[in-house]
Fold this protein.
Amino acid sequence: MINVLIVEDERIAAEYLRRIIEQVGYSVVGIAKSSDEAFALLKHNAVDAVLTDIMIQGGQSGAEFAVALRQISQCAIIFTTAYADEEMVEYAVLASVDGYLIKPLVPKEVLVTLKLALKRRRFMRTGNDEIITLQGGYKLHRNGSLFKEVTRINITSKMRELLEYLAKNPNHYHSTQAISSALWGRPDCVGALRTLIYRLRQTTSEKLIDASVSEGYRLHKENI
């Protein structure tokens, strides 16, 4: 059984989302109006996914809650919001969210985004220990570890997901729409993708990922 937590302070919106999720046989373990309520529910319920509105009650926003949650859980996290701005994109990167939904919610989009997010998280948990050798002496392990020679580099789960996606077909350009769909479940998360790549380059090397205005992005992989 797939367990889902909804974090939404508007009751009608929360119940609408509950009905969408339950119609495919998933279980909604609870509805929280604030981050405090959400963490209280998480203490007693194992969840596979959390859908949180950006703006919720309490001293912590839904975006800040997502960042805090990611520190202790690798469950799928999806933002729901009435709008998308640069601040939301920043939080999306920090929390390594798996997708976002723009209100008013469309049932089909909710279910597709949720199923893709769950699938990505399952893949990340079951990856093997194959080592991907990248340009500049970097080595990416399928268990999520990135090394520069013998030094471990701290990267977010979303950075790892990006590297694994690009490494499946190295030295080949992938369109921004294709990468966005693979990482967030929708093709229009261009801002989030650019921010993610910028942060990854800061953490590793400018030369690790090539960018082409017309073609997208590609990964330099050695010993192919």
Summary: Residues 107-126 form the longest helix (20 residues). The chain has eight helices and eleven strands. The longest strand covers residues 27-32. Helices lie at 11-22, 35-44, 62-70, 86-94, 107-126, 157-167, 176-184, 190-203.
